[in-house]
Design brief:
The complex is a heterodimer of chains A (71) and B (284).
Chain A lengths: L1 H5 L10 H10 L9 E4 L2 H7 L23
Chain B lengths: L6 E10 L2 H7 L11 E5 L14 E9 H4 L1 H7 L3 H19 L5 E9 L2 H10 L1 H11 L2 E10 L18 H37 L2 E5 L11 E11 L3 H12 L5 E9 L23
Antiparallel strand pairs in B: 1-3, 1-4, 2-3, 5-7, 5-8, 6-7
The chains are: A mainly alpha (71), B alpha+beta (284).
């Protein structure tokens, strides 16, 4: 499979934490129901780690790039 | 297997219960180096809904109750060091499984009281998980991010100015030049995003737009696009190559392709995913 040639993560090459948290904190299946004890509350993370991650800035301008850039 | 009183059952992912899965689990270590185990369950009273689902399993670990109960989790989620350790352990397990089998990652920190409760949850979600796993089979997630290069319009850059200008006019001219440079870079980013989108539409089956990244964990470059694509394995390399080739023509921006990822961004069906652009999700 061609994937292995190029894409296979190399040992020792660490995935960027910001990319990881992007996926782990907003991706993955959320199982609902009475028997699940807990799923970490993402809203909480949004608030307390806002300064670090802010992958949750929502409605961030897409690549269009708004004018609001101050030098 | 049961869970000790002072332990909880942490679920990393769901996967078809196959020999490949058992091989992948063998010797695998997860959070705090704990062994990765397997919780299985038959489908909950298969209420006559068509074809039988394949047997599924949860990949799990036993984790300390005092650390993973709901209150403790809320505190730990404020602690970046803890968060990173658990996130990397979670990811390493998911990644290890994904090289051997189709895998459906669960949201980080999904915890059950014990294995029995986890098995019950698996049984209840069995059909939904089986459907989703079938859709994700032989697909991989890739990320595409576009950054404005930090050197695009540094504040200190002094464009050539006419020495005869007054200081005020010279200042305005510099500001104007900076502004124009910035606009040009955004224009490049916009066009690059369009090119990426066009290429992706040829290879990817689904697309999710994540919010752009900012904050202390990111580098100095401004991230303006943060997309995820679900790509059939056979197209993975052509997809990456096509994007890398197409974006090399753009100045002032940097395009980063990340992956292959387990399908974190596509674990929920598009209808339930807030950001899904559901390009051509087809049942069949």
């Amino acid at each position: 499979m061609t994937l292995a040639e190029h894409g296979e993560p190399l040992p020792g090459r660490q995935v960027a934490l910001v990319d990881l948290l992007d996926r782990l904190l907003s991706g993955g299946v959320v199982v609902t129901g009475d028997i699940v004890l807990s799923i970490a509350d993402i809203d909480l993370v949004r608030i307390s780690l806002r300064a670090l991650i802010v992958s949750v800035g929502a409605e961030n301008r897409p690549a269009a790039g708004g004018p609001g850039v101050r030098p | 297997m049961t869970t000790a009183d002072d332990a909880l059952t942490y679920v990393y992912a769901a996967a078809p219960l196959t020999e490949a899965l058992r091989d992948a689990l063998n010797g695998l270590r997860g959070i705090h180096g704990s062994p990765v185990l397997c919780v299985t369950a038959p489908p909950a009273n298969g209420t006559g809904t068509g074809a039988p689902s394949p047997p599924l399993a949860f990949a799990t670990s036993h984790v300390p109750e005092r650390e993973f109960n709901e209150r403790a989790l809320k505190n730990h989620f404020e602690d970046l060091e803890w968060l990173e350790e658990v996130a990397r352990a979670h990811h390493d397990v998911v990644q290890a499984l994904s090289t051997r089998t189709t895998v459906l990652p669960l949201r980080m920190a999904t915890v059950y009281q014990d294995d029995d409760r986890a098995a019950q949850a698996l049984a209840e979600q069995h059909h939904a998980f089986a459907d989703r796993l079938a859709q994700l089979s032989a697909h991989t997630e890739f990320g595409v991010k576009i950054y404005l290069a930090p050197t695009a319009a540094p504040a200190g850059t002094e464009p050539a100015t006419d020495a005869s200008l007054t200081p005020g006019k010279a200042y305005l001219q510099r500001r104007r030049a900076q502004h124009d440079a910035q606009e040009a870079v955004y224009g490049q980013a916009q066009r690059a995003a369009e090119v990426v989108g066009a290429i992706a539409s040829r290879y990817a089956t689904q697309h999710v737009r994540h919010p752009a990244q900012s904050g202390a964990l990111t580098g100095p470059a401004e991230n303006v696009l943060n997309d995820a694509y679900l790509v059939p394995d056979a197209y993975a390399e052509p997809f990456r190559a096509a994007i890398e080739e197409a974006v090399s023509q753009f100045d002032g921006i940097r395009v980063e392709v990340t992956g292959p990822w387990a399908p974190y961004s596509f674990a929920m069906p598009p209808a339930e995913s807030r950001h899904a652009a559901d390009e051509g999700e087809e049942r069949g």
